[in-house]
């Protein structure tokens, strides 16, 4: 039974625009579902793209091929139905190889540590002291409901703001259950939740409603010496990856304004 969300047909149209040209001629391109979700994330939430892709496949408009990877899950590739699977094998093999390269545990670890270092430096620049790292304890209280922890706990030097920071340097958006757990964890420890991630648009409202802040950077940030690698990912897959030694200025400015508003007193507002 098809999902009846009215935005799914719009998402399906957006997918069609990627696999056929303006004259409705098929393009010789393959996409995996996670890639489609990132490419169209400004317009549609990931579950809408997933459901639209499933419907296009079930209708026969798209063909699919599932490929195994070494370091990631099985990847579902989609392409225009006018092209036989055999014609897509080379492109699928090339993309699968690239996915394996950026999914290596060593690369994932480097990316995580790099963004943590950038976030930590910016927190200090914004007037915070780091009082805990990779911990679920604060001021004598300890979260025991799950085995989750926070990447950083930081206190603003004004004494008016204490935050629990979750850092994610991934292309995919964190799962809703994980986000909710971190929100609950921060609430239990009497901290304001801050999510420092590449992308968080699907859950901005959820986080805001529970008193948290979404601090996202739009691109997945790699350290120095990955310039060639990120260029390959961008050229072949169109994914938002870049090499940076500091956080994007626009993201920093937005966070700085939030910190200012969160630490100002009523008297200072007047």
What does this structure look like?
There is one protein chain. With 270 residues, this protein is α/β, with parallel strands linked by helices. It has two domains: 8-102, Orthogonal Bundle (Arc Repressor Mutant, subunit A), CATH 1.10.10.10; 105-269. The chain contains ten helices and twelve strands. The strands form four sheets. A five-stranded mixed beta sheet has the order 4-7-8-9-10, with helices on both faces. Strands 1-3-2 form a three-stranded antiparallel beta sheet, with helices on both faces. β8 (162-168), α6 (176-188) and β9 form a beta-alpha-beta unit. α1 (8-19) packs across α3 and α2 (33-39) packs across α3. The chain is elongated.
